[in-house]
Specification:
This protein is α/β, with parallel strands linked by helices. It is built from seven helices and five strands. The protein has a five-stranded mixed sheet with strand order 1-5-2-3-4.
């Protein structure tokens, strides 16, 4: 479910962003101005934290970001000049546009995070996947360590046989049987 963000919140953030951040591509200010001045465009503007496939996504970066200054994705094509997005804004004002901003500190900027629309169900599913990955990884590491331990014991068993050390041999064989009977806690 998408969260609702008012046009005033969007306008205030865009204005604040222009005041606080230097844009890599100065011409991009025109795109911001289009959204700030036009209520109907703000209504269709959605802030996102990723490029939205098959949607019109505008990527804008500040000077201190490692990302390109401007990119526009539309109809599975990538554009690097603002003329295409300005044309689309004028010819398709009822279309939804997704804005991805790259700037220093965005991951902790509450003003920005409060605007980002993300599907909480997607986030939960992603979390569940990572928990499962962690569990699988831990199980694999445990198995590898157990196998390594068994190999080391087998090596010591061979050495005990070579040295004809029956006591050590029996102790190591017993230890190997214990390891073989252990079950993982996963």
């Amino acid at each position: 479910m998408k969260k609702w963000v008012s046009n005033d919140q969007k306008r205030n953030f865009l204005t604040w962003f222009l005041q606080q951040h230097q844009l890599k591509n100065k011409e991009v200010k025109i795109v911001f101005d289009q959204f700030i001045r036009n209520h109907h465009l703000l209504e269709k503007l959605h802030f996102t934290d990723h490029i939205v496939k098959n949607k019109k996504t505008i990527v804008i970066s500040s000077y201190h970001s490692d990302e390109p200054g401007f990119l526009y994705y539309s109809n599975n094509q990538k554009y690097e000049h603002i003329s295409k997005v300005l044309d689309d804004l004028n010819t398709n004002p009822s279309t939804s546009y997704y804005l991805l901003l790259n700037f220093n500190g965005k991951s902790i900027n509450q003003r920005y995070l409060s605007l980002v629309e993300s599907d909480t169900n997607d986030r939960f599913q992603e979390y569940k996947r990572f928990v499962q990955y962690e569990k699988d990884t831990n199980q694999m590491i445990d198995e590898l360590l157990k196998q390594q331990n068994k190999d080391a014991i087998r090596q010591k068993i061979d050495e005990a046989l070579d040295n004809r050390d029956k006591v050590l041999f029996n102790k190591l064989v017993s230890k190997l049987h214990e390891l073989n009977e252990q079950k993982n806690d996963f």
